[in-house]
Write a structure and sequence with these properties.
Number of strands: 10
Low-confidence stretches: 1-7
Largest sheet: 5 strands, antiparallel
Strand content: over 45%
Number of helices: 3
Mean pLDDT: 88
Structural class: alpha+beta
């Protein structure tokens, strides 16, 4: 039962970086940023880690608390404190860590709906 739950809603993900494999708790990941053939994972109070994978592949393994907000960004909604909108229609998510993540104009309505 626990193994099935872990596949449906993973609590940890396997990260390959610097020639080794680590398991990182999903709750610690603030956001993920696509960086060519890698994904930069920004981890709460621990800096960032480069993961050798695509953002789309990583998105398919993350739990439902993660939201795709831009072509290059996925955010853990647990860290979002506010959303502001610019005159051009794009947005900025403000995170409890002090980071800011862009929201694309195309995805903005979906983000507003998800945040309620």
């Amino acid at each position: 039962m626990d193994e099935h739950k872990e596949r449906e809603q993973p609590t940890k993900i396997k990260i390959s970086h610097a020639g080794k494999t680590d398991f990182i708790s999903c709750e610690e990941i603030c956001f993920c940023k696509g960086a060519r053939d890698y994904v930069e994972l920004v981890i709460n109070n621990r800096g960032s880690v480069l993961h050798h994978n695509s953002l789309s592949e990583l998105e398919s393994t993350l739990p439902a608390t993660f939201l795709r907000v831009h072509r290059s960004y996925i955010v853990n909604t647990q860290f979002i404190t506010s959303l502001s909108r610019s005159a051009s229609g794009t947005g900025i998510l403000h995170l409890s860590t002090g980071d800011e993540v862009p929201v694309s104009r195309r995805i903005m309505p979906k983000v507003r709906d998800a945040l309620g």
